[in-house]
Amino acid sequence: MTDYSAVPPAAARPYASWISRVGALIVDSIPTVVVLTVLTVAFGDNSVDTSGETKGAAFQLTGVPFVIYLVFAIGWFVYNWVIRQGSTGQTLGKKLLGITVLSATTQQPIGGGLTFARQLVHILDSLPCLLGYLWPTWDRENRTFADMIMSTRVYKA
């Protein structure tokens, strides 16, 4: 766990690069993709009708396997983003890539509630055309719309 009592002031902390933020997101997404893939291959409905045509989407996940995936995905989100990032400033992906999310004013992790709100505000980053996710590439503080709204910054750890 990082000791935030000895962190340098905001002006002295370098901001995380856009590519490290994307890399952390990819790493954080791997567990849900793996679970979805395993469940879909093992239990996916790849039914074929009598004419040999696939009925509906190939490997559609339904029923109990879908519920298992949904419970896992929600649990992973709550653990990794809400609890872990809320208390330490880092998801597992952010820790692996050496970046951290902190309040711009206090230089401390923002807590679970505000982290959950920040994740919801990321919806605005998708509108229009993922513009908010690209914004850090030209913003001098490398911020997404969610960072601007929630007063957070992503720093190199």
From TrEMBL:
Per UniProt, residues of the RDD domain are: 15-150
One cellular component term (GO) for this entry is: plasma membrane
Q: Which sequence ranges are marked TM in the entry?
A: 22-43, 63-82
Highest taxon of the lineage? Bacteria
Cell location: Cell membrane
Q: Which InterPro entries match?
A: Pra-immunoreactive (IPR051791), RDD (IPR010432)
Instruction: Provide an example Pfam family for this protein.
Output: RDD
Which UniProt keywords are present, listed alphabetically?
Cell membrane, Membrane, Transmembrane, Transmembrane helix
**Name this polypeptide is given:** RDD family protein
> What species is given as this protein's source?
Aeromicrobium fastidiosum
> What is this organism's lineage?
Bacteria, Bacillati, Actinomycetota, Actinomycetes, Propionibacteriales
